[in-house]
Amino acid sequence: MNKFKDFSTKLTNILDDENIEIDALMKNHTSFKVGGPVDILATPESFEQVVEVIKLCRENNIPYYIIGNGTNLLVKDGGIRGAIIKLCKLDDIKIEGEKIIAQSGAQLKDVSDVALENSLAGFEFACGIPGSIGGAAAMNAGAYNGEISNVIESAKIIDNDGNITVLNKEELELGYRMSSILKHGYTVLEVTFKLHKGEYQKIKDRIDDLNRRRSEKQPLEYPSAGSTFKRPEGYFAAKLIEDSGLKGVSIGGAEVSAKHSGFIINKGEATAKDILDLIKLVQDKVKDKFNVDLYTEVRIIGEDCSNI
């Protein structure tokens, strides 16, 4: 019997049964389509429920991880001991003048669509970034010369004492794929973006152009977690990988995309170990050839099968 049965029973005092899953396979909850089971998967539907689930985890010494839609996540084949708190049902998006207020589980694409519908400019860069608002704020996600720090005004978070508070832009300490959210382990509930009025057609043309460029250059037809590696200072990860002769190289079902070497993709039936072994191969080859360290942009969590 799953040792987290008692904990899941306590969870029913906070969440409906449909929002609690035992031994959920994480390959069904990540864009990489790999990953073993998590003991408990909880999907709260309100800020208050998120606070209460986190509090219950802490009171019962249950390790927990917060995710959005699992688009920047690699879960190992042995799965996760503890709880995953998935915020995908916190997806409300509303307009207040030139501001968009989006809950953490809202998709970047959906926020981009709402901005377009209301002729608000500034969010076009995010139209094709996979992932949700909470993760994007935590990572200061960016693409095509734009990033979250350019448009964010504030974020509503849960701090380490379990309190809901609001951090302004300065307090978020946004840098390259970094923020005070990551630094301190806060949980994002909602983000306010400050955009500006624009012309609908110009905004649409920009979005269409970026989507076309992504489709032409990125392997969107395969499961992945987006760009696998952070950009090393003074270099481009994809060029270093390609110049190391690694474009198209595969281990098991994992491949350095032949379309864009900055992506490691699941060509079919890949395991997390295949992907991790390929990441290590890429890091070693680039280090040997260029003496440059590549660090993953993808978040890696869980246990190897041998650790179960």
UniProtKB/TrEMBL annotation:
PANTHER family: UDP-N-ACETYLENOLPYRUVOYLGLUCOSAMINE REDUCTASE. GO terms for cellular component: cytosol. One of its GO terms (biological process) is cell wall organization. The keyword Cell inner membrane does not apply. Its EC number is 1.3.1.98. This is UDP-N-acetylenolpyruvoylglucosamine reductase. Pfam families: FAD_binding_4, MurB_C. Its cofactor is FAD. Pathway: Cell wall biogenesis; peptidoglycan biosynthesis.
